[in-house]
Design brief:
Layout (H helix, E strand, L loop, with lengths): L2 E4 L2 H6 L3 H20 L3 E5 L11 H15 L2 E4 L2 H10 L7 E4 L22 E5 L8 H9 L7 E5 L11 H7 L2 H4 L2 E4 L5 H10 L2 E4 L8 H8 L4 E4 L2 H10 L4 E4 L5 H16 L11 H16 L2
Parallel strand pairs: 1-2, 2-3, 3-4, 5-6, 5-8, 6-7, 8-9, 9-10
Helix pairs in contact: 2-3, 5-6, 5-11
């Protein structure tokens, strides 16, 4: 073994109870230190940087991130925009060897959402852990501007315990009764089959994020051949150039009912067409080759 490749090292420490966080941090440091003594290169795939509201935040800022970044020999970013943002927010990362290697596609199974009766109305879906930066309340507000019965809205995901989105439930409560009747809010972790079939059954995935470094949700949705509407951020603009702007459309400023309506019309047409998003650059064999080349370059240093 020549490479120690880490994906979510911060989660290992951040999810620990406060009394155990320092123990987990010491264990992680010991593992990395032992790897360095053995001559291994330490590589990190940077899915996320420092997350607001993360448990054990002060410890992470003071003791985890500086030591972890200092130990790195290489970093894999999933997009060019995430590399730029990471280097801006954490200048020490800019001095570490890096490569941009995208996230691979998923293969969700076909089918309608488990446990739900079929519906003839189009379906808007928001999925994943619910935290403030994902801005789910903006989608709820815009949904309330649609003519009742125009669409159904599914919000599928567990509300964060450590960093809850305090705007979502009040936004749901403010919806008129005729709009609220078309909303499903499933506050739990869905099984893989439930999530996959839900995304495939949806007409349009909506990601009204305020900020984001990477988004597996886009690739997940497009793997299910479900179009995506997202806020105008560098990451989404970069991905849209690759997968096709028909499949990943972005909007400026605030999300509105009119933007949703136009995106729904477009998504319905797209799903009926024989077209497919361009996921060829995300093929796993290509990613494997790119990763091997990067690892080889590190070992030659």
């Amino acid at each position: 073994m020549d490479i120690l490749h880490l994906h979510w090292p911060d989660v290992f420490v951040a999810t620990a109870r406060p009394g155990r966080a320092k123990v987990k941090l010491a264990l992680l440091k010991a593992i990395i230190g032992f790897a360095k003594l053995r001559g291994l290169r330490v590589v990190w795939t940077a899915h996320n940087l420092k997350r607001v509201g993360q448990r054990n935040g002060p410890l992470m800022t003071r003791a985890f991130w500086p030591a972890f970044i200092a130990a790195l020999d290489g970093v894999i970013y999933l997009t060019e925009s995430s590399k730029l943002i990471a280097s801006r927010d954490e200048p020490a990362l800019a001095r570490i060897a890096s490569a941009v290697i995208p996230h691979g596609p998923y293969e969700p199974p076909p089918g309608a959402r488990l446990g739900d009766a079929p519906t003839t109305s189009p379906i808007l879906i928001f999925f994943g852990s619910i935290v403030p930066y994902k801005n789910a309340a903006a989608l709820v507000k815009a949904f309330g501007e649609l003519k009742p019965g125009t669409a159904n809205l599914w919000i599928l995901g567990k509300m964060s315990v450590n960093n809850p989105d305090l705007d979502l439930e009040p936004a749901l409560e403010r919806l008129p009764a005729d709009a609220r009747a078309h909303v499903t809010y499933d506050n739990r972790f869905l099984s893989e089959d439930e999530l996959a079939s839900s995304v495939r059954a949806a007409t349009l995935v909506v990601l009204p994020y305020r900020e984001v470094l990477n988004s597996g949700s886009v690739i997940y949705s497009l793997s299910a051949r479900t179009p995506v509407l997202a806020s105008r951020l560098p990451l989404f603009d970069e991905l849209a150039e690759v997968v096709g702007e028909d499949w990943l459309t972005t909007y400026e400023a605030s999300l509105t009912g009119e933007i949703l309506r136009r995106a729904l019309d477009h998504a319905e047409h797209l799903k009926r067409s024989p077209a497919n998003p361009n996921l060829e650059p995300f093929a796993w064999p290509t990613i494997a080759r790119q990763t091997a080349v990067f690892f080889s370059s590190l070992l030659k240093r």
